[in-house]
Amino acid sequence: MGESTEEIIASIMDKIPEIEGIILFDADGNAIVSQTITQMRHAEIAKSAAAMIDVARKLSQSVDKGDASVTYVESEGGFTVVAFAGKKGLLAITGKDATNSLGLIMRNLKLVLSKIK
Question: pLDDT tens digits for 75-86?
Answer without folding.
Answer: 999 999 999 988
